[in-house]
């Protein structure tokens, strides 16, 4: 059962008790007891009645009783229900707004430096670890390197001509080895100068088309004479099958043609692999910048992330900002801060792109 369905099943009294328990826990970090609630609820309800309501909420999986305490704290499901259905988001505090606005004072600075500063300010304002997912850099390349991190994980290190460096994670095609990745990088670095990543991929697409055309031309005579046939019409998986009697022909020209075809096949396969590497590099996850005590926070199971995407001038999502902290974050305050920061960064990216 999802949080919204559970929320619709609660009557007004259960909803009020649940809301007060969550707000009390988020404020103090301590379990909230029935006696405390009986003194703060607007309608006069006895502590015994509140205990019964809390037991029902515990049965629904929304509250939990830690250890031997008589008080209750919200479960993960309870926090989700509260955030989705009962959270009262405050207006952004003017002091918080001013602290975030101040980070973009020097517009002459590099976008990366400004985003770094935004992340630091966000961490300072919220007292949590901040996260900034930066937009991908699209500029002429200087160098590219593929690093194998395991059979299903690899890193591409991209050095741009303007000095910017990015690391992107991707899942390599099956069967690729560290040596094949080095070979791909060596080939690309011979072609890379002055080209962006997408332009480099277009070069590879043209190379593949050219190799395919050479193969078709060279193999046409063999196919026409019945000495060979294509196993598939699909360009990505076609193979030239040489019939048995071609192997019996003692003809030097045929042997040379077959060697040339074999060489072209090898070259075509290599370029297809490289093109796939480039596509995966373009689609790979951008660099995430964590500021603050994120290591400790991520080692805790009870941590929360409040995140909001930001957009460029074309209203396309190009990154995200967020705050990581303990589950008892002050969500009502943090949510508008993260939302405003995302809008701020979106304006920065848009302004830079229109210069």
Tag the structure with descriptive keywords.
Enolase-like, domain 1, 3-stranded antiparallel β-sheet, Beta-Lactamase, 355 residues, Arc Repressor Mutant, subunit A, 13 helices
Topology diagram in text:
Layout (H helix, E strand, L loop, with lengths): L2 H7 L2 H17 L5 H7 L6 H13 L3 E2 L8 E2 L1 H11 L7 H8 L9 H16 L2 E5 L7 E10 L2 E8 L4 E6 L7 H12 L7 H28 L3 E3 L9 E3 L1 H5 L3 H32 L4 E4 L2 H6 L3 E9 L5 E10 L4 H23 L2
Antiparallel strand pairs: 1-2, 3-9, 3-11, 4-5, 5-6, 7-8, 10-11
The strand line-up of the biggest sheet is 9-3-11-10
CATH superfamily of the largest domain: GAF domain
Strand composition percent: 15-25%
- What is the total number of structural domains? 3
Average pLDDT confidence is 75
Series of secondary-structure elements, N-terminal to C-terminal: HHHHEEHHHEEEEHHEEHHEHEEH
Describe the main β-sheet briefly: 4 strands, antiparallel
According to CATH, the fold-level topology of the largest domain is: Beta-Lactamase
Helical run tally = 13
Please write the CATH class name of the largest domain: Alpha Beta
Q: Helix proportion of residues, in percent? A: 40-55%
CATH architecture of the largest domain: 2-Layer Sandwich
> Structural class, from helix and strand content?
alpha+beta
**Model regions low in confidence, pLDDT < 50 over at least 5 residues:** 240-253, 291-300
- General shape: elongated
Could you tell me the number of beta strands? 11
Radius of gyration: 30 Å
Could you tell me how far the N terminus lies from the C terminus, measured between alpha carbons in angstroms? 51 Å
